[in-house]
Design a protein that fits this description.
7 helices; two-stranded antiparallel sheet; alpha+beta; 364 residues; five-stranded mixed beta sheet
Length: 364
């Protein structure tokens, strides 16, 4: 929106300083006139018969007062211009940084080193905002690149299968259809996961009163056949745990955690324990599983989209796209909760989710 040019903030402050100084000088002269000159006799004999009288004092005082007022005005303008420039110098740096960020460079920082004041707080807040914005933009760029790669893979496989079938008309059509269906199913699952991740990141969902214990039981019941197929013991413990949020998203969160714990487990004799409880006014969900030992530097990367370590990549139908824990992290963040991943000394992973307790009416 275009605006007509006006006085700069520096000029306004300068005029304010000069005006304040001129008003103060005028008040001082008025005080001198009111409390000094009015006691001087206005006659030819003067005060106590000795000159000067009021007439002479006025003629002598008025030019000096005019010179003093002129000096105060000039001094106020010059001094105000210098003081305003010094006061607004941090704001100039902040404006330059904002323009640089507006041109697409988010790596620039103000890093103001002056003493703590309002401008320093504004600069620090601006630097923090730039850091978060740069991190978010980088994350979105990586996500877009990884999503494009992941979505391109099933399409490339489908094209290759069709090219092979076109070159070999005598091939088995049932086998081709089965492979195409598997590839298409994987592409659909990936697309749904991306949409769910986008929805949870946006926080566009209705909140309701949810019992995490019931959600955990439903997720465990759904994944029980998978656990039995792999010879894994799946247990759900704990009591009623109330929280506020989307029941659908929270069910997806628990399902992803339990499925991740089942899939990345010991080949035989593994266990998965899901526990819910209320602690300190918050709803706590713990999912603990056995499995191979995890390097400590690997765990922080597990919640990033499409980040799958070599040890955790599987080649079966439950390989996934590396979005399981990323979706969990996004859902927890959208519900104002915290997610903690800790590798177990004996192998496996302990995941702890803390969500605000109570229903929507009890949320701040």
């Amino acid at each position: 929106m275009r605006r007509h040019p006006g006085l700069s903030a520096r000029m306004k402050l300068t005029l304010s300083y000069a005006g304040f100084l001129a008003v103060a000088g005028a008040l001082l002269l008025a005080v001198v006139w009111a409390y000094l000159l009015r006691y001087v006799p206005d006659n030819s004999r003067g005060l106590l018969g000795v000159s000067p009288n009021r007439y002479l004092l006025v003629r002598t005082f008025a030019p000096a007062a005019a010179v003093a007022m002129g000096f105060l005005l000039v001094f106020g303008l010059v001094g105000g211009w210098i003081l305003a420039g010094r006061m607004l110098a941090p704001l100039t740096r902040i404006t330059a940084a904002a323009r640089t960020a507006g041109n697409g460079s988010l790596s620039h920082r103000i890093r103001m080193e002056d003493r703590q004041d309002e401008f320093r707080e504004l600069a620090d807040a601006f630097d923090t905002m730039l850091e978060r914005l740069e991190s978010h933009v980088d994350e979105q760029r990586r996500f877009a690149a990884n999503a494009s790669h992941e979505l391109r893979t099933p399409l490339a496989i489908s094209r290759a299968l069709l090219d092979v079938a076109r070159g070999d008309p005598a091939g088995d059509p049932d086998a081709l259809f089965a492979r195409l269906q598997a590839v298409n199913t994987r592409a659909v699952d990936l697309t749904e996961a991306l949409l769910l991740l986008s929805r949870s990141d946006g926080g566009t969902f209705a909140r309701e009163d949810v019992d995490l214990s019931l959600v955990a039981e439903e997720a465990a019941e759904t994944l029980l056949p998978l656990a039995e197929e792999r010879g894994i013991t799946l247990d759900v413990t704990g009591g009623a745990t109330r929280t506020g949020g989307s029941g659908e998203l929270l069910l997806r969160m628990v399902t992803n955690l339990v499925q991740n714990a089942v899939v990345h487990n010991l080949p035989v004799g593994g266990t998965v324990t899901v526990h819910t409880e209320e602690r300190g006014g918050a709803g706590v969900l713990r999912v603990e599983n056995t499995g191979p030992p995890l390097p400590p530097d690997l765990v922080p990367t597990l919640t990033e989209p499409f980040q799958r370590a070599t040890e955790r990549v599987r080649g079966d139908e439950h390989a996934g796209a590396g979005l399981g824990l990323a979706i969990v992290h996004s859902i927890v963040r959208a519900h104002d909760g915290t997610l903690e991943l800790v590798p177990r000394p004996a192998g496996g992973l302990l995941v702890t989710v803390r969500l605000p307790g109570g229903g929507p009416s009890e949320r701040p």
